[in-house]
Amino acid sequence: MTPSASVLAVSLSPAHTFSKTPQPEIHLLSGLGVEGDAHAGRTVRHRSRVAQNPDQPNLRQIHLIHAELLDELRGQGFRAAPGDLGENVTTRGVDLLGLPRGTRLHLGEAAVVEVTGLRNPCAQIDAFQPGLLRAVLGHDAAGNLIRKAGIMGVVLAGGAVRPGDRLRVELPPQPHERLERV
Hints:
By secondary structure, this protein is α+β, with helices and mostly antiparallel strands.
C-alpha cells in the first residue's frame, strides 16, 4: 500500500444488473452493505447463492476492485470504467488481491469493511464484453488460477464513502490466510 491509497469511485445499483452506476457518495450500513444496492443484506443476495441456500450469511455485501485492473483491461482494448464490472468501490494504490482474509479497510471517516474473499467472475462478464472473463483470470508460475476481478467484504462500521476518500489498511493478526473465492 502507498501513503496515497484512496477511493477512486463509488457505485451502486438497486437492481441485479451487471454494472453499477457511479455516485457522488454511497452509504455503508453495518452488517448489511451498501444502502440502496441490490446486494445489501444479512443473508445472500447474489442470485446463484440464493438458489443454493437463501439463509447463508452474506459474505459479499460489498465488492471492491483496484483501478489498476481497469487500467490493465483498457490496455488490452476493453471498456473498463469504475462500476462497469459491478464493483461498489474502486480503489487506487492498494494491492487488494494480496490482502489476507480478515483485513479491515477503513474508508473515509467512519466506514470499515472486513475482507472475506475473492470475487469469482462468472460467464456474465463475457456477456458484458466478449473475452473479458479470460482477461480477469490468470495463472501463476505453478499453474494455479488467479482471480483478478476484485475482492468481497462485509461492512463492520457504516458511514459515507466518496471518491477521493483515504483508504487505510489494517491487517489481521498472524498467521495470515490468503484469500479464496467467496
